[in-house]
Design a protein that fits this description.
Chromosomal Replication Initiator Protein Dnaa, Chain: A, two-stranded antiparallel sheet, globular
Length: 183
């Protein structure tokens, strides 16, 4: 399911004009929103690195990994979205959040190298600086993080063929401009 394209099948409008979203769409947004929110202490530099996040007391990440306990946090529901056994669900949850963290760092790196605003890397549209940045992002995400072009298309609200073309296009761009993922 694409994160930014909601189709008519994903919701309906009641006679009173209230919009009701489908359960799969809501679960998808809750889980992706949950991983985004859980990474906020890291973005705000309240913890030094990703491993430190599990020890941060004002974040539910450590609880979901089984490192801490909070009475108010419903871990069973979140784990149920990743697997039936708690240990498998914890592992898949950890991989899911880590991948989001790595992707976020990659967006920051591309923005820094190309001297553009972070939001311009992932914004929709065919603006030349965005297309170039998105292409570099797609190239490194696919080659370095192992993100599929289908997943990239969903994250960036572009078609899968466009994501594939971006990977190809950027291979030459990265080489010609001597761009390095890691200094």
């Amino acid at each position: 399911m694409a994160t930014s394209s909601v189709t008519r099948e994903d919701y309906h409008v009641s006679p009173r004009g209230v919009v009701h979203f489908s359960l799969p769409l809501l679960v998808h947004y809750c889980i992706t929103g949950d991983s985004y929110i859980l990474l906020n202490p890291l973005r705000a530099k309240l913890v030094p690195d990703y491993p430190g996040l599990k020890h941060f007391p004002y974040c539910g990440h450590g609880v979901l990994l089984g490192k801490r306990h909070n009475d108010w946090q419903n871990t069973d529901y979140v784990w149920s979205q990743f697997g039936k056994s708690p240990s498998r669900a914890r592992r898949l949850y950890h991989e899911f959040v880590k991948k989001g963290y790595d992707f976020g760092r990659l967006v920051d790196r591309v923005a820094g190298l190309l001297h553009i605003d972070r939001d311009n890397v992932t914004r929709p549209g065919r603006y030349p600086e965005t297309v170039e940045a998105r292409s570099v992002l797609c190239y490194w995400a696919a080659r370095e993080l192992g993100v599929s072009t289908l997943e990239l298309s969903k994250r960036l609200a572009i078609s899968q063929p466009t994501a594939s073309q971006s990977v190809k296009r950027s291979e030459k761009l990265v080489a010609d401009r001597h761009l390095k993922l890691i200094d």
